[in-house]
Amino acid sequence: ALAAGRAQPIAWLETTVDFGGVYSPLEAAGLQARVEALVAATGRSWETLGDEVDAVTLCLNAPSRIRTAPDTWLATTDHLGRTGAGDRERWAWFGQVPGQPARAAYAAMCAMFITPRSAWLFDGYPVETPYTTWDATTAAEPLRERGIEITLFDNPDANLRTWRMAASRPIDAGLVFVNTHGDRGDFNLHPGRASAGDVPILNVPAAVYMVHSWSAANLASRRTVGGRWLERGVFAYFGSVQEPYLQSFVPTPVVTARLAAGYPWGAAVRLEPSPPWKLATVGDPLFTGLPRPPRVDEPLPLVGAEPLEATLRRELAQKSFAVVVDTLAMLGRDDEAAQLAIALLRDRPEQYTPDVARRSILPLFRSGRGMEIPAAVERIGFSHRRDRRLLDAMWLFAAPRLAAFDGATLDTFARHLRPDQVAVDALDLAPVLRQRVGPAAARDLLTSAMSKESSRRGRRNLERALRSR
User: Fold this and answer.
1) Which of 93, 199, 227, 305 is surrounded by the fewest CB atoms within 10 Å?
2) Helix%, strand%, coil% for the chain, nearest 5
3) In angstroms, what CA-CA distances link 436 with 195, 402, 406, 433?
């Protein structure tokens, strides 16, 4: 798809298949040599920016990091595309499109056909030097001038509660810009600390520029901030594989100005000149969502296709409610899908099967009926690996309003802590459980969480909470 859409020659190479892994320096040098040989074989000039080859897309599940020392990593996409020694000047901007064929095709097609109409900006930095250089309010202006609808969170309201309230519904933005600091699995706001599980669910595919240390430390893992963004459906991402220092990021207002001026993604997010460093580019480096290209609305010859409305009528007649819920969701009628699920649970509970419940959770979330999600979760009989994004929907809706649930529903939350952040969920829930049910219930929750939490930091936080009660 990208070869056809971008007029890019295709070249084939074999390399390590481990997106979450790391290259050794020797392996990275070998990859670089093979890539350069393949580019040279096209017969096009390529050895400096401004010639015939200025962008290369790696459609590979290859490691996104290179280990240059026991505790030091570089980004593969910033190591490649360089010539010479020392600081090694850039000859091309690289981007990586990982994933299984369907996921990779999705990312490629988004990059070619998505034209963002809205942007979501959240600035978790204090209003002081040097952070004001990355100011989200300033960054919003070039996009607003291009007619982009802006959702902006900046000081004094860029705190954890604001984030969680915003993330309790899907975000409807094709461009996302976040300024924070923290670790691979969490990010600090002003004030408050969010976790990877607080990454919002998306209503539309998005490109994300994340000014944050470590967010791309392992993009194959949902335990990392960047990995969770990719799981949500992000098709382009820019983030750091290790602490890069703030000045390594292009200031957010400069990135938005570049994108508004028509810069491609690979160039817009890169600081030039700069040596090979720790910042990874995911997605098609030639993605240019702005300015909007001309649109063609001619009918498509969909031979043999059946309108979803016909499917909906047939499945309704057969009372195939799981398919009906899915079909309504595909038609963008989440409100009707949610109403159907609620009616079945209330009036025909025998037909509110685990399959119907599973398919209804995201429509319930997207339509703002998250108070009904715990009942759906109880009906499912959870397989955590399969249904982890559904648990995310339950917790995302509930996080800023746990006190609104009754004791029985709080027990549902206590029995469905997310396996990849047991301590975070338990520590959020315990104060509410103590107030609504009693100290013993909160203590039992924290004690149980201790046996399930896999991280040392999580267990330390749980131990601290138990000692303080």
Assistant:
1) 305
2) 45, 15, 40
3) 25, 10, 8, 5
Q: Is the pLDDT of residue 87 over 80?
A: no
Distance between alpha carbon 456 and the CA centroid of its chain, in Å?
25
| Per-residue pLDDT at 405 | 97
Cα separation of 64 and 454, whole Å?
Answer: 25
**pLDDT 10s digits, 274-289:** 999 999 999 999 999 8
Domain boundaries, the chain: 2-93, 97-282, 304-394, 405-469
DSSP state of 20: T
Structure tokens at 2: 């990208």
In DSSP terms, 188 is beta-bridged to 181, 193
With the CA atoms of 419, 96, 77 and 288 taken in that order, what torsion angle do they form, in degrees rounded to the nearest 10? Answer: -120
Strand partners, 182: 187
What 3-state class would DSSP assign to 342?
helix
| CB 106 within 8 Å of CB 235 | yes
**Pairing outcome for strands 149-153 and 118-123:** parallel
Residues in the chain: 469
* Sign of the CA dihedral running 372, 376, 382, 388: negative
Q: How far apart are CA 446 and CA 443, in angstroms?
A: 5
Q: Which of 323, 328, 282, 371 is nearest to 61 (CA)?
A: 282
What's the burial of 268, exposed, middle or buried (CB within 10 Å: 0-12/13-18/19+)?
buried
Which pairs from 441-446 meet CB under 8 Å and 24+ separation? 441/414, 442/469, 443/469, 445/414
> Which pair of structure tokens corresponds to residue 324?
């009906």
For 85, 163, 164, 276, 352, the CA distances from 181, given in Å and listed in that order, are 32, 15, 17, 22, 43
Task: Please state which CATH class domain 97-282 belongs to.
Answer: alpha beta
CB-based burial label for 296 (10 Å; 0-12, 13-18, 19+): exposed
Residue 35 has φ and ψ, to the nearest 5°, of -60, -45
Residues 205-215: what's their mean pLDDT?
97
With H, G, I as helix, E, B as strand and everything else as coil, classify residue 167: helix
- What phi and psi, each to the nearest 5 degrees, are found at residue 4? -70, -45
Band (pLDDT 50/70/90 cuts) for residue 85 is low
